[in-house]
What does this fold into?
Amino acid sequence: MKEEKNKLMWVDGELIPWASATVPIATHALHYASSVFEGIRSYDGYVFKMHEHYQRFHESSRGIGFDLPYSIKELEEATEEVVQRENCNDLYIRSLAWCGSNKMTVASRGIDVHVAIMAWERPLIRNHSAVRLIQSRWRRPDPCTAPVHSKASGLYMISTMSKNEAEIQGYDDALLLDYRGYIAEASSSNFFVVKDSRLITPIPHSCLNGITRLTIIALAKTLGIPVEERDFELKDLEGATEAFLTGTAIEILSIGEIQCNQGRFVFKEEAIINRLKQAFYQLTNQIN
Ligand code: PMP
It folds into this structure.
């Protein structure tokens, strides 16, 4: 990311210029991935689902074995401070916590934990055309192997490799199965289909239980759209009429095509997606 002149980042309780926000090479997180993060959006200065994000931030860090040195309230106040300094409507906020450099052992106990909060403009992509996904050769791990519900940087190695390979093959994103072979999620968003007028999404067994995912499920229920959370295989894509992704950055993004080892599935309809988009956009507008 380009160095942002005149921008300030909140680091360990202080606002400092981006250019001075650096870490020593002997940082534990760089060597052993002892870091967790959050991706949050603000709409016209209002930080959407901030409390839920910081609850997850705390759970993520506990999931990989360390506690954050700031309460949810302190993190919320710091975020407001960062957002207020920015001069644009649609911000993406990145909060990061990592184990520092005062010790270099595999065990992270006793290592200082640092926190940074930064924000940059990230325009909404509400008119984006439907995306094309390809099945990844990588799979989401067994919850006994990795803390799959933590937004732990270490897990993003899987997402990065999957997304790189999808892009090299000319696709927008990758669709990952879980270790059992059921559909899990895309590289950084949750997966939904519409089949027989019902919304179906994988049980968050091995994927992140996204905050947008939960919001969409709640909105669907309000709209009277039946929702099923269940294990879902690639062959079950047969007969699905709509498909889409959800996530903080992308909000709701239609899927036009999935290429996988069961063949190529094309989704042309968007009736239910459009109802959900409308309800979601209304929700993000209402709160302003
Ligand atoms: N899965 C993964 C792997 C992600 O990185 C994200 C983005 N945080 C999501 C799902 C969607 O989560 P949320 O709706 O909370 O942004």
Observations:
- The first strand starts at residue 8 and ends at 11.
